[in-house]
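ok trying this again, last paste got cut off
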Amino acid sequence: MDTELFRKLLHNLLNAEVIIYDNDIRSLSAFEDACCFQKALQPMFTVESLSYLLNSMNDTTFYEIVDKLDVCLFFFRFKEKVFLIGPYAGSEYSDEKMQKILIANKMPASYATSLRLYYTAMPLLAVYQIQRTVTACMVSFDPLLHEYTYRRLLGFQEEPKEPKTYLQDSINYSDIYKRYHIENRLLKLIEKGEVESIIQAYDEMQDESSSLLDLYLSPVYQSPISILRALARKAAEKSGLSVITIDQITQKSVQRLSGASNIKKQGQYCYEMLIELTAAVRNHLVNTNGYSPAIVKAVEYLSLNYTQNISLESLCRITDYSPSHLAKIFKQETGRTITQYIAYLRCRQAAEMLRETSLPIQEISCYVGYTDNNYFVKVFKKVMGTTPSEYRA
């Protein structure tokens, strides 16, 4: 049996960590370091307890450890391998319940925040859900599977006789600060249109030693690409880029991601979205540098509608300027009249099509808004300094 495939299947279906234990104590030590909040509260999550339980378990029994925090661990043996699922939360977080636990164990209030963060970072699962999923997967690999029984192991049957008194020491929240620092850095790069830096940041994200990779694979992000896309959208919007343009880019990304056949493809599509979005921000910032908010709105409107017959009245409604004042301010800030700016946008698009396609000039002319090809040639020569045919050559 392909045990790694079985593990990945359980992980994806339950959205929980799944560990294969092969008598290597180091895997249990790693589990204790990562998942045991406090040994005194969770003695069954220690290396010693887990080692004992796993080495004395029944081959056809599902086991579930439930500690006093209602943090659980599910484990079982299948095809001579031991699989551990969790930790996971057995119920929704309750401040009142956790306060009582801390008070009963003489732990100060400073632990409340870290305890809440620890508990809410875990998936919320019911044991029947895990049993049903695990059994279905096992039957897929072994149709003649023997029936398994279920045994619940409670870590706290008795109140401690002499609770330990904890000193109110400093709690380390550096991982959380680091996560927000990374998010803010990505947002700033997008907001400023720094394409090269975004490429570098994303390359770092693919490095297995990078904290960026750990960040987006952590339980905090159940849908990491969706989270990243939402952050990127808001950063681009903050730059002043049109929300229409943002939606064009990100909605295309959503469609591509939905059809991605593997994680590598998803990563590639996410990367391309970040680059395209950041490049759009950069172009927007370059094209509107020094413009007042009203003229930025006018330029944005023209950029979206330049192939249409745009009336001066429609621009006045957008900017709240009178026709004469708008014409004056627009020329003053952009260096072009509104008519000249529309011609510039049309000819810029036509020039790109002349370079990148073999479409006839007549078709390009109609596409960018000129039904009269002769007039298009005249305008193009005035704007670009050469005729369309000469430009293409």
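PB: full thing came through this time. The longest strand covers residues 81-89.
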